[in-house]
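To the structural biology subgroup,

Please find below the input and predicted structure for EmrB/QacA subfamily drug resistance transporter, which we are adding to the shared reference set this quarter. The sequence is reproduced verbatim from the submission form. If anyone notices a discrepancy with their own records, reply to this email rather than editing the shared folder directly, so we keep one authoritative version.
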Amino acid sequence: MAVLCAGQLMVILDGTIVNVALPAVQQDLGFSSSSLAWVVNIYLVPFGGLLLLSGRLGDLIGRKRVFITGLSIFTTASLLCGVSQGSAMLLASRFVQGVGGAVTSAVTLGMVVALFPQPKERAKAIGVYSFVQSAGGSLGLLAGGVLTQSISWHWIFFVNVPIGLVAALLAGRVLASERGVGLGKGVDAAGAILVTSALMLGVYTIVETTSHGWASAHTLGFGAAALALLLAFVTRQAKAGHPLLPLRVFRSRNVSGAMVIQALMVAGMFSFQFLCVLYLQKVLGFDEVHTGLGIFPVSVAIGALSLGFSPRLISRFGPRAVLLPGLLLITAGLAVLGRVPAGGSYLVDVLPALLPLGVGFGLAMPSLATLAMSAATPRDSGVASGMFNTMQQVGSAFGLAALSTLAASHTNALLDDGADATSALTGGYQFAFRIGSCIVGAALLLAATLLRSPATARRPAAETKPVTGNATR
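Predicted structure (tokenized):
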């Protein structure tokens, strides 16, 4: 479990650790303002596009083998990012990093579920996994600020190298070996090409909306192409003898509902990190380190809930009963951020919103992971894990692109009406936070109407039948 979480934490940290170092990277490597965003985006495109394929490969050739391969790719690419002396080399290395991150992340949740077959222990393990997933982003902001200010931006990548090497070596020693079901029982090369192309093109279209706009020919054209590829993939899966994504996975309303709710929750929640960072820096005048410290209470709250309280609640009341108040708290926290003033105070205006966000996410994330994996069989756990992570990446990319665009357009409208720069910026952030609150509110409505807690989750621990045989070992 420690090895799996170390690998996952490294990958998640890298999604945000770069953000606070972007000004230093731009100055050192000569990025233009328009091309600088690709330091982040070029990582997201392969990461979001390869999760599903990587998860299925884990089912076919063994999740341990895929996990170690992903760690090796990610670690090597991190070293190349750190030694980059030009923009082209950094972008190419970041793309490879995204590939390694996808391969590593896609099988991790499936391996966690396989390690802990009994419901009570599984709830605890998913709580730890969820903490790593959700708190890693906030930790990345803090680590990025400290490393960039104290040493240089190169070290936000170098720090991955020893962690990745140790995690890969330990994974080879402590993780149980698996044979998988074999490539002959599910290669589906055509399906792999279709879904990877669709997801990469879809993520690219979303992240580029900040440059081209939502109604531009570029966005509509590439979006239509991505949708056509995705529809072709679904058609292929319905007819293929050995599909890459068995559609039986979605027969469970809990699995299907959890995937959609995950995308909506992440779309509203993860964008808060980006927008709240901008508010702290551009309106309240925080530097990089103080910005990371300002977001850190979210990680503390998530950890306090995910690592102890949430698993016990899920075991006692079921994941649905824990998910609903979690989503409600996230909705409320974003609504509070929607009222931050231009002359605000961190303690009075920001912190009261961060605490319900952290508590809410600490309740909601383990519950969703439990529901999403509730109907996954051992032969499909890899693809279910990959799909769960795919929805997280698509939701975060869509939410960030949509809400940042809305914030910018509302700010411009306020400037045109004669508002000063600080008030206009704050008004844009307020508007985006309110929209994010509505998105998570929609997720809450879906959760209340679609989901049902699995019967095994509601059964008292004493009544749970012990698992025997290989699973116990």
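Summary notes: The mean pLDDT is 80. The chain has 19 helices and no strands.

Regards,
Lab coordination
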